[in-house]
Give the backbone structure.
Amino acid sequence: MTTKTKCKLLNLAGAVISFAAPAAAAIAEFPRVEQTVAGGGRSFADILNLSSAAFSIIVILLAVTCWRFFREHIKLPKSGLITSLILFAIAYGVEQFIHSFRIIMFWSVIGCAIAQVLYIISDRLEGSE
């Protein structure tokens, strides 16, 4: 196995671990509640059989996890409008379920700590080429 392949595998493993642990905690902490949406339709969270809170947290975690891979391709404006809107949405969402979010973030810290070690190993392998 080449060094480049090892780096890709370590990066992928780190991303999966840093996402999976808090995502599983979000699903466990926010059980699905049966609720119909306006007009008797089904929401995307209903289709996935997740609560809205768990779905919101999973989407935020996925965005944070993917940031490592896409940060070179995302160009933010100088005013910080996009960043402010994203942070506002996160703050609003967190305000709704802060206690449970603390538990989820504990598992996120554990997952991200493991991922950080894998990322450091990957970066050193890539740098040694």
Remarks:
- The chain has a mean pLDDT of 77.
